[in-house]
Design goal:
Helix content is 41%, strand content 17%. It contains 9 helices and 8 strands. It is globular.
């Protein structure tokens, strides 16, 4: 039986789960899932995820503001965020970060201002951050060097050189279904490079579904396919990958 699946990044508030969310979440422990961090992107989604964390004892929440939400976040939202982060079932600030992929999204200066507020808050509260970096590697690295938070750069998409710089700040690297994609090059190189004590495994569900199920909704029960590919890349067993990444996730998020 597969065990030790700790999904370090999910979005179980997403509408893709509306039809069967409770049925699915009730079934995952039977599929070997022992832990999930389900992440907010604004106040409503953070509240939804925190409610799930209170309903299921193997789920914990992260609360924060995604860069795509930057233009609509207010001072009042930051006050609400602080309250959510005080909850014992909320174990990280996120999903936060920078996304420069779409130039018609929130302006970069707005994203940067919101991110720095969250990084300061995470350091004040001694909470890890869950960092989104899309087409913003230079600013991401600059801010990680400046604030030195603990946490993870999730769904890592950079080069080995970028991974090295991220690791030097003390952060973890999160990898998911992209390592299974046919033409994956950078994710495979990074998967081979990252030290085992800094590696996390994730789904980013309902997105980034691993091969052979690419194109359907992702969920934490599909992580063994990602673990299998990581094991091939790193010349070990899937069981070893799952054991190591569980230990790392529990250390980072749960203080174990």
């Amino acid at each position: 039986m597969i065990r030790n699946i700790f999904d370090s990044h999910a979005h179980y508030d997403d509408a893709a789960f509306d039809s069967d969310r409770d049925e699915l979440l009730a079934s995952l422990p039977g599929a070997g899932v022992c832990g999930i961090i389900t992440c907010g992107t604004d106040i409503p989604t953070s509240q939804q995820n925190l409610a799930l964390a209170h309903r299921y004892d193997y789920i914990w929440a992260a609360a924060g503001f995604h860069p795509e939400a930057a233009a609509r976040i207010t001072d009042g939202d930051f006050a609400l965020l602080r309250g959510l982060l005080a909850d014992e079932r909320c174990v990280a600030v996120g999903e936060l970060g920078l996304d420069y992929h779409y130039e018609d999204g929130a302006p970069r200066e707005v994203q940067l201002n919101m991110l720095e507020h969250q990084l300061s808050l995470a350091n004040e509260l001694d909470l890890p951050v869950i960092f989104h970096d899309r087409a913003a590697h230079a600013d991401t690295l600059d801010l990680l060097k400046q604030y030195r938070p603990k946490g993870v750069v999730h769904c890592f998409s950079g080069s080995v050189e970028m991974a090295r710089d991220i690791l030097e700040t003390g952060m973890y690297i999160g990898l998911g279904g992209a390592v299974t994609f046919k033409n994956a090059r950078r994710p495979v190189e990074v998967a081979r490079y990252v030290p085992e004590e800094r590696l996390l495994i994730e789904t980013d569900c309902p997105y980034m579904t691993p091969v052979p199920f690419r194109g359907r909704r992702n969920d934490s029960g599909l992580i063994p396919h990602t673990a299998q590919r990581l094991a091939e890349i790193r010349d070990c067993t899937p069981e070893y990958i799952l054991t190591v990444t569980r230990s790392n996730a529990e250390k980072l998020f749960l203080g174990k």
